[in-house]
Amino acid sequence: MNSTPGPRDIDILEKTTVFQGYFRVDAYTLRHGRFDGGWTGTMRRELFERGHAAAVLLYDPVRGAFVMCEQFRVGAHFGGMNPWQLEIVAGIIEDGETPEDVGRREAEEEAGRTVTDLWPIQRYLASPGATTETIQLYLGRVSAEGAGGIFGVPSENEHIRVSVMSEAELKTVMEAGGLENGATLIAVQWFFLNRERILQKWKTP
After folding, report:
1. Which of 90, 55, 86 has the alpha carbon at shortest distance from 72?
2. Is 156 annotated in the active site?
3. Structural domains for the chain
4. Which pTM does this prediction carry?
5. Which entry of 97, 156, 167, 169 is annotated as an active-site residue?
């Protein structure tokens, strides 16, 4: 059995920036090693560069409740999905910030919640065939007492409705196919797969 090609088996022939706005699109001409030891033909691939993100599923282990967000997503609309997505809090990691910094900041800005503990879930590629973006997922411990309302940064045209959902309510939504974005679906599935050990660690008697 042949070994898997590595970074040295990627031959970058040309790189150009074809769009530079708030985000950037780079075009690469390249070839790469094959599993049989040969090389592919030359190909062109465009990459959407939007940075990296952190996202947090906000959970209150005392009340057994989640603090969730709903907001308009233009990609969902033009992708033929529900434009108002049920989501977890998330944000782009800026220069000088850690993923943890972003998770805590976004919990305040998007949901009005203070995170008292962050539990790392997974870092994953959002869409590896089209973008370098990675998302660092967390479970964030919060109090859901008094949660709810409209949040977001007005200068960024954010208009986010925040609500509290019980474990049973969110599980029902998930099982009915109502979680349509990757970060939220992965985080919620992870929670229910790991619920017992989460409660053992976090639940206050």
Report:
1. 86
2. yes
3. 7-49 (no CATH), 53-202 (3.90.79.10)
4. 0.92
5. 156
